[in-house]
Amino acid sequence: xxxxxxxxAQALIRFLNQQYIHVDGHEFPFVEGVFTIFGHGNVLxxxxxxxxxxxxxxxxxxxxxxxxxxxxxxFSKQRLRQKIYAVTTSVxxxxxxxxxxxxxxxxxxxxxLFLPADTFATRQPDPVLQQIEQEYSAxxxxxxxxxxxxxxxxxxxxPEQLMSSLIRAFxxxxxxxxxxxxxxxxxxxxxxxxxxxxxxxxxxxxxxLDRKLPTDRELHGASELIxxxxxxxxxxxxxxxxxxxxxILKRLSEKHHIPxxxxxxxxxxxxxxxxxxxxxxxxxxxxxxxxxxxxxDLIIGVGTRYTDFATSSKTAFNFDKAxxxxxxxxxxxxxxxxxxxxxxxxxATLEALAPxxxxxxxxxxxxxxxxxxxxxxxxxxxxxxxxxRKDFVPEIKEQFSQEVLNEYADALRxxxxxxxxxxxxxxxxxxxxxxxxxxxxxxxxLQRLWHTEVPNTxxxxxxxxxxxxxxxxxxxxxxxxxxxxxxxxxxxxxxLLLHSEFLTSIQFGYKINxxxxxxxxxxxxxxxxxxxxxxxxxCEFRTFDNQIVNVDYAKIAEGxxxxxxxxxxxxxLKAALDDAKQQEVSTxxxxxxxxxxxxxxxxxxxxxxxxxxxNKESIQQAFERRIQMLRRARQY
Length: 636
Ligand SMILES: Cc1ncc(C[n+]2csc(CCOP(=O)(O)OP(=O)(O)O)c2C)c(N)n1
Ligand SMILES: O=C1C[C@@H](O)[C@H](O)[C@@H](O)C1=O
Ligand SMILES: [Mg+2]
Known about the structure:
The chain is an alpha/beta fold. The chain is built from 24 helices and 23 strands.
């Protein structure tokens, strides 16, 4: 056996350089680079190994572990899970900061390699700096908190453990059915320890992303279900996008007259202008999609997890008559809602199904066209809303009085409604730009109103809906698509929570554009709170003496070295967007919008935990409404 003497960390970096992926006849390196924040736990191990020989790996210095990990997640999501970044952190707080991002990767099924440093394997200097001391076990470290949010988790306390650990991690990350975060915690002393590694371990390894084919039984069952249905709909989920099933979806939809409805993750698999695409379904869906869903007698779920937002908390369908046909690479997902399971790749399955459905045609007839037309008229209305100082009725009704709305208009010096601003952006930026969002009221507005015409240009993290993903993720998208303009659409709350990687984007010349919607508050939560009978309680950003907070975000961005703008009219917004496009450096547009001017629900319902007992009649009424809705909801 030929061996090579390396430290654990040097072996790790050499191995990462040799991982390739093979997809649809193309082969390329799987690991693009490494995000780093060095501390004493990783600088002398992984830091030394990277300095000595990083190979083809790009190195990006992050500013916040959560932020850089979000960037890595977004990179992988944008590259349709075919390429990853690794993320190395120091021990203790550095690794703890990964937990939120790992949850984000896990909920969205995104592969990413986390490499948090761990405490000393030898335990000789225990307790070391940043080591928690757990009374019931010396074996527990901060990194155990990453176990529930990792699809694969391991601790390496001896150099030779690295080999089996890495092989397992890459098997998990390159399997579409299991894809998610892999976490390998390397003890800080072990990282620098040398070992005679078998040279074969470092040979080029190709991971095949073969499309799993459906069985004859599955195909026969699926085609029978479709041919026996009268009003089927196709629910396009994230799995359809990762499988790049857009063309076959359109062909089937057109030929058999089956409407398409989309989840957040599925949007931009098929262009919005496609005649049978009725847009988003569920809580943040369009009226068109929600009406079609209610009428459907067969839901063909393609790569969907059927989350509460997609199913309106299991009330979106007529469960008395609707059946489910679930096409998914994951058995876990395919089993949902008692569906007929086809555990296979989306594109391969749909292509195999096509000849079996023959000349089937749904009963939807002209209805698809009419539903779409009706929705486009509603979108047009939302595009041209004008605020008035008297008798203004915002989309979110009966929550803020005219007086309070005027107070916001004065404090933020704006009369701009959010829907008007959003559609103006959609009309202005190039259609091949990539937009990203994650939390707050914007995801709902985007799913309903954003028209996407180019595949994979709509990047919504709505599995975890993690505030702080937007700006960080924009950096990851830019790393994935250097030639495209990237726009992070972010609320003021989310921006304040985390935007550290904005600086990273400027520092390394990866231009991103931040479109900050400032309504001075946690707007969507204020809506939720008041809709369910509470008062306005700590969701607005008000000072101790009840003044509305007005932050100059443009100035903050300028401080980082970005080009920034202020916009409170459509004209200012469009001018800023045009100028921002010409810039080489990252930009931020501070868009002041009025609260309560985002879109409302369209025939949807969200099951949230309303108080059963309260001192307010309005809350008791909300509780009663919930009980009534639960009677309609399917239980599992
Ligand atoms: C990390 C994290 N913390 C808390 C939440 C809960 N949450 C969801 S939206 C929201 C407020 C968002 O405010 P903002 O970004 O200003 O958006 P707006 O609703 O005002 O448009 C909060 C606190 C979350 N999604 N993520
Ligand atoms: O609680 C929430 C409410 C949603 O409207 C929002 O988009 C999401 O970020 C969230 O966490
Ligand atoms: Mg806000």
